[in-house]
Amino acid sequence: MTTPIVSIRNLKVAFAGGAVRAVDGVDLDLGRGEAVALIGESGSGKSVTLRSLMRLNPERRTRVEGSITVDGRDVLAMSARELADFRGAVVSMIFQEPLLALDPVYTVGQQIVEAIRRHERVSRAAARERALDLFRRVRIPSPERRLDAYPHELSGGMRQRAMIALALACRPKLLLADEPTTALDATVQIQILLLLRELQRDLGLSIIFVTHDIGAAVEVADRILVMYAGRIVEEGTARDLIRAPRHPYTIGLLKSRAHGALAKGARLEAIPGAPPDLANLPPGCSFAPRCPLAIEPCRADRPPLVAVKESQRARCIRTEAAATLAPQLEPTG
Amino acid sequence: MSANASMLSILARRITYTIPILLGVAIVCFALVHIAPGDPLVSVLPPDASADLQKMLLAVYGFDRPYIEQFGRWLWRAVNGDLGTSIATGRPVAAEVFKAVGNTLRLAVLATAIGFFFGALFGFVAGYYRDSFVDKLASALSVFGVSVPHYWLGMVLVIIFAAELGWLPPTGAGPGGSTDWAWDWAHLRHMILPAVTMSVIPMGIVARTVRALVAEILAQEFVVGLRAKGLTDRGIFRHVVKNAAPTALAVMGLQLGYLLGGSILIETVFSWPGTGFLLNAAIFQRDLPLLQGTILVLALFFVLLNLIVDILQTALDPRIERG
Ligand SMILES: Nc1ncnc2c1ncn2[C@@H]1O[C@H](COP(=O)(O)OP(=O)(O)OP(=O)(O)O)[C@@H](O)[C@H]1O
Ligand SMILES: [Mg+2]
User: Is the residue at B61 inside a domain?
Assistant: First the structure.
């Protein structure tokens, strides 16, 4: 077996002098060429986890513990220079809102050329030629003209394609996508997801994909990790997680989904209560206050990760009871 | 449409927009003479002049014609570079004004350049290292720059560098009180103290603007995007400069405009033979043609400057609508 491209061990990230624990003991392994999706409610620490892989959280205000290895290198030990050479070349990121994530006063072409020339000694003309290829690759129509457009002159979908082209400019091994489709309308969302899937297969990319949307996660990822209050509460193959979720939070998420493979007549339910205050987490399971199955031991100790089956694990001591709670789903292909 | 062609059409449009402004400026300047209390001839006529003499002079100067005709004649002559004759000196107003404008312009440009350079520098450092010691120092300096009375600062500088140390001349624009400019050290020395005094105003304002701009730009998400590409602080600096440039330059242009017209105090303290000095003289001697000419030329400068700033800003910022 080859070494994983990403290996995160017991990652803890805190802000505001340790008061806000945004990430609280995350373990994550990603194989080469694999795509995983990280899902969970707003504020559960998905973006912070993703940004930690490139050390993009504001350095001075962030406290990081644990270890992060990407492509065999210890990310937390890198010098500023090493980090700059690493970002963009080994790992790159696609942001949720490309209009905000691109510099408004440079054309998208200039921004791609800049990224290429930052990491490789090539002429401006050669870099532009490559930018043009990338634009064709992500299927931007009239790529020559679009290279000279400013971000605000492109449509949302086109902008996200340009952002993907930028992320791929230096042939990274790992692509981090932070809700790349949330800002787009439904039809464009699907096009972008299919594009990502295709690029992943063709280029052998490894992808970590953050989303709110389970449907999108299933579309892109082999494996899904569910995050709640800074912890991974359940992980498994996309198929298993949809068919047989074992953590009450995952079940709640599936039940609250507005569209998709819910059986006819199944009720749409919201998870009761609100996400916890990260500055004031309960000592036991952080989902316990909202959990219909919570019992006394849940509130006392932090639950361990329980193997439900070979490829599926849930951080819950009531997985058996949870199995009976799982939503009735129509069998999907 | 190509970028060049659209730039040209913007240019044409912006220039067209200034025409009504210019006309308004001309009307105000013309009206000045007639709004000013007293007779337009009050300073040339002896107090005991006969009614006949007064009538004759009015006719000679054309003051007996209808306003509209007077305005037409005045404007026609002004367009052709004839701003009348100074009542006090008997010399053509245009020559006096242009010489003074040259002096003021030179001083204002140097002061703005100094102020912009140091203001942008302080602002950048302060914005980059917000809430650090440098930031607090820069903020204190900019408050000082905006609030210190400049005639007072001018006098302090004169006392230190001219009276005590004797390094620089205290007043005037050239050796031996000459008012003719030349590009040599003997003349440049005269410019240093007034220019430094004057530069304190744009320095403070530019520093404050740039600090806020830089802090605002650095807080934007695209800076994270730039880091994610692997850019170092130096690479990011270039992006910050390009994002801040349009606004910073606009502020600089406006400051230059204010310095062109608002330097009466400093020019008086340093006896600098510029427009402020000239305005001062024109007002106290009730030299209306001179006053009129000086204000007209200053106003034209201001309009022109705004036009340049506007065009520069459009050229620099792709987000401003060009269509
Ligand atoms: N730079 C920061 N400083 C302080 N707190 C932060 C910072 N970045 C994130 N947080 C906090 O960390 C928590 C997790 O945020 P994160 O952005 O990872 O959530 P998320 O799961 O990505 O949510 P969303 O789906 O809304 O993007 C939040 O409570 C957030 O307020
Ligand atoms: Mg997020």
Answer: no
Burial B261-277 (b: 16+ CB within 10 A, else e): bbbbbbbbbbebbbbbb
B34 within a domain of the structure (yes/no) = no
From the CA of A45, give the closest atom in ligand 1: 18
- By the CB < 8 Å criterion, does B222 face chain A? yes
ipTM of the complex: 0.88
Question: For B319, which of A86, A101, A104 is closest by C-beta distance?
Answer: A104
| Total-model pTM | 0.81
Residue percentage of chain B with pLDDT more than 90: 16
Which domains, from first to last, does chain A contain? 32-56+74-90+173-258+268-333 (3.40.50.300), 99-171 (no CATH)
Residues of chain B with Cβ-Cβ distance to A115 below 8 Å are: 229-230
Per-residue confidence (pLDDT) for residue B1, from 0 to 100:
44
d(CA A62, CA A16): 7
pLDDT, tens digit (0-9, with 9 covering 90-100), for B106-137: 888 999 999 999 999 989 989 988 888 888 88
Ligand 1 pocket test, candidate residues A11, A12, A13, A20, most atoms within 8 A of CB: A20
β-pair partners for A14: A21, A63
B57/B68: higher pLDDT: B68
Q: Give the residue from A279, A285, A176 showing the smallest Cα distance to A231.
A: A285
How far is residue A126's CA from residue A135's CA, in Å, rounded to a whole number?
14
B69 is a domain residue: no
Most B-contacting residue of A53, A105, A116 (CB-CB within 10 A), to test interface: A105
What are the residues facing A211 on neighbouring strands? A39
Q: Does B221 touch chain A (CB under 8 A)?
A: yes
Contact A84 B228 (CB under 8 A): no
Closest to A4 (Cα-Cα) out of A31, A22, A41: A31
pLDDT in tens, A239-254: 889 888 999 999 988 8
CATH number at residue B127: 1.10.3720.10
Q: Which residues of B touch A54 (CB under 8 A)?
A: 227-228
pLDDT greater than 80 at residue A204: yes
pLDDT at residue A133, rounded to an integer: 94
Q: Ligand 1: residues whose CB is within 6 Å?
A: A 15-16, 20, 22, 40, 42-48, 57-58, 61, 212, 278
DSSP H or E run through B46? none
Place of tokens 């449409």: B1
In a domain, B48, yes or no: no
